[in-house]
Amino acid sequence: MRIKFSLFFHVSMIAVCVTPVAILLLLSFSKNWAFPVLLVDQFSSIAWNDLFSGGNDVRHSLLLSVLIATVVAFVATIIGFFVSKTIAYHTYRRQLLFLAYLPFVLSPVILAVCLKFYFIKLSLAGTVAGVIIAQLIIAIPYSIIFFTGFWNQRVKSFEHIVNTLGGTNIVALTSVIIPLSKPLLLVCFFQCFLISWFEYGLTSVIGYGKIQTLTIKVYQFLTEANIYYAALSCCLLIIPPVLLLWINKRIFLKYL
Amino acid sequence: MKNKGTILSFTLLFIFAIIPLVAGLGYALLYSFGLVGVLNHGFTLQYWKQAFADQAIAISFLYSSSIAIISLLLSVISALLVALRYYQLLKKGIYTYLINLPLAFPPIVAAFFFFQFLSKGGVVSRAAFQVGITHTMQQFPDLVNDRLSIGIILAHCFLSFPFFLLLFTGLIKTQRLHDFFQIAESLGANKRQITFRVAIPLLIQKSLPNILLYFIFIFGAYEIPVLLGRSHPESVSVLAVRKLQKFNMLDIPQGYVIAVVYTIFVVLFILIFLKQKKLAYAN
Amino acid sequence: MFKIKILTIGFTFLLLGCNNKKESNNNSNISWQEIEAKAKGASITMMMFQGDRKVNKYMNEYVVPTVKEKYGITLTIVPGQGKEIVSNIISEKEAGKQKSEIDLCWINGETFFQLRQIDGLYGPYTSKLPNFKYIDTENPIIKYDFQQEVKGYETPWGQSFYYLIYDSSKVSSPPVTMAQFEKWWKANPEKFTFSNDFSGMTLLKSWLVELAGGMNTLDSAFDEKKYNLYAPKLWNWLNTNKKYFWKKGETFPSSIADVSKMYSNGELVFTMSFNDAEIDNKVNEGVFTTTSKAYILQSGSIQNTHYIGITANSGSKEAAMVVCNFLISPEAQIKKNDIRLWGSRTVLAIDKLEKQWQDKFEALPKRKYGLDAAYIKANAIKELAPEYMLRVFEDFRKKVIEK
Hints:
The structure holds three protein chains of three kinds. Chain A is mainly α. Chain A has a domain at about 55-215: Orthogonal Bundle (MetI-like fold). In chain A, about 75% of the residues lie in helices and about 0% in strands. In chain A, α6 crosses α8 and α10 crosses α11 (about 225-255). The longest helix of chain A has about 30 residues, at about 60-90. Chain A is globular. The two termini of chain A are about 25 Å apart. The mean pLDDT of chain A is about 80. Chain B is mostly helical. Chain B folds into two domains: about 1-45, no CATH class; about 55-275, MetI-like (MetI-like fold, Orthogonal Bundle). Chain B has helices at about 1-30, 45-50, 55-85, 85-90, 95-100, 105-120, 125-130, 150-175, 175-185, 190-220, 225-230, 235-245, 250-275. In chain B, α1 packs antiparallel against α13 and α8 crosses α10. The model of chain B has no long low-confidence stretch (mean pLDDT about 85). By secondary structure, chain C is an alpha/beta fold. Chain C contains 17 helices and eleven strands. In chain C, β4 and β5 (about 150) form a beta hairpin. In chain C, α2 (about 30-40) packs across α13, α8 packs across α10 and α8 (about 200-210) packs across α17. Mean pLDDT of chain C is about 90; it is low at about 1-25. Classes of the chains: A mainly alpha, B mainly alpha, C alpha/beta. Chains A and B meet through α1, α3, α4, α5 and α6 of A and α1, α5, α6, α7 and α8 of B.
């Protein structure tokens, strides 16, 4: 019974996780996929060839996206981690935590429209710095909220022990808190990276379309009528984070 | 040292959390009353009256809330059960990688995939036709753009389930729940009791901020309902974007009315939520 | 709470304090040579629809390098259409920005109407363009943009017309009148729908024209009385027949792209397009079946022109004008007309061109799936006034979708 159950578990988990990636990849390599053909019978690499032919500066967008997402994830994770500590141990933690939720009160598209005025005033519209700041408005509070569950009495007492044994705060940080929080730090970094990677609303409005992250670049094709190009765009969006995960697999494995 | 850190933290919180909202909301509020905007000519209540002339706003708020609640119930409960039952399996081998895969899906990709997967001309329908379950494409049930919003809910669950699974397995580890299980078991408590009386309440309590945040995400979602939903009822973001970005420029102030109502609704929701539940780190 | 109040009041002043100063210099007396000289070395940005790879290729691989080489202008193309352009210009005006981030924009109809309303466009300027003399200015579809006279505030760039696409392996003779549509829907339920966007609304407008007994009735400015006479008939007819539509007419796809996606996987057997070259492109790419065919309704094919506007706050209007002039040159137009490159019909009057260009236009490859130019011209009908679109949109939601 137990074996059957876990077999069922394995099969369904793998199906849920792998099917979408496989289908999107298959669709991006096909054409003339008419009902009732189940899986593609005519392979074609038109879409992929087109992508790497001139005019589509995908590499530039890819680099820009990696740059912006890394900066945003790094800054947001660090700031979020320490700010959440202050909040968690503060007398008015509940009220302070409430403040961290505020940027999510508006959905990104609407928030962007409401904030555009100020970004233009500050001459930040249409610049990489403007886009990074705009994305941090979402990413930092996210990271603060993400970490609030981590700080508790137990962590606090660990810190205390280190302090009473004569260790500085930095020792407490490096010897206790960081090892303890490493899996969460990684998940948070990854989540913030993804928030930035996929961010469309703020990036398109604040970046004026001039800051062409990969998401901005491929978004237009996704809303187009050609399902094969749309599938290709999907692959372009998901493959880099999937690879990132693969590279990080060892780290995840170790700490999860 | 401690004081400096606190001040720095508060400054950052102020810059990234408070200023954007106050500024954005202020702008939307002024716009909705005709005080700013190229086409406005001074204070008016007209846009608020127009926006509430029909029930579109109320319907869309109800609709978006129900979608968010149902999707979250499904994904949180299933993630909890899987995390507790299969914790040992999940922390090793291929799963450490696999369960992260759906996290790499932005909502628009999920929406596109589910459309190609579940529509009448989609993969599942083709499979049903091939094995003889259906004989025409039209016989396949409505799973996207459907009356019950099945497609939307499935897409949201697909995105949120792995997130909660990761969160719960992470918490089980950081909270050392398994050590706790062993102690409890050695003291003679039964496993089911521990699961339902201790583990689940603790995990829920610890992850409440994340659940709340996810509620807001789904509530404000745009891409998934716009592709997998119906023309009516509309989700809140779809309605707001229609007013803010579609053809009629004179509808823009009404879009800001929705933005203001949206903000008030979510702020109230968070306030009530945070007030009722004692958050875990409060000792 | 008090602090928030103060902040809000502060914002009010900040926002109200911005006045939009109008630039008075409109290059009225300088020669084209001087304009070209001033344009040299400038960097400008063009905001346009970028959801079509052929269009992108035309711009990025041909226009951008050519204007750089010929005129020393660095042109950047950024994505954004209609509403986004309007909202960007509005925000810049509200923030009191003197120099716009956008210099050129691809616009027509509604967008032109709205940009004119907010004084967002520079002009009149088109008469200064040396190549403007080739434009087919007699053509009412070029002279009037959705019934509004262009008056030199935008450069005609290309023509589009509305047509339907069907799968000839599944439909033997496609319906062209409302009576035929009704008959076809009843015989083939759940295989037809249209999108709740610009494209679908154009179909509704075509039917409105049919109900009004032809284009002549609805030509010229918006007429409330006529609208109220014919529109209810349309809603009534749709409500009686929508049970035969896709998903029983309870919902409509939000964009034409979604309709075409379902057409290409076989869920629907009709789709529509405003892009002349789309059917040829999509068949060649293996998206539409080779049995796809284009056709137009008996009441005619709604035709419009797309234009390029220069923003009122553009930092380099000279460079923007030089690019406009290049885009309507025979050289650039012939490439735009070529089905292998873009495939959008030219706005030039072929008979005004020199013989060598006439021959080149003549020698362009014919469309394989698309419709013949002469046939379309004979059946073209003008766009209705923009107000019709706004009303049809609003009433379609209230009287059909929410019913």
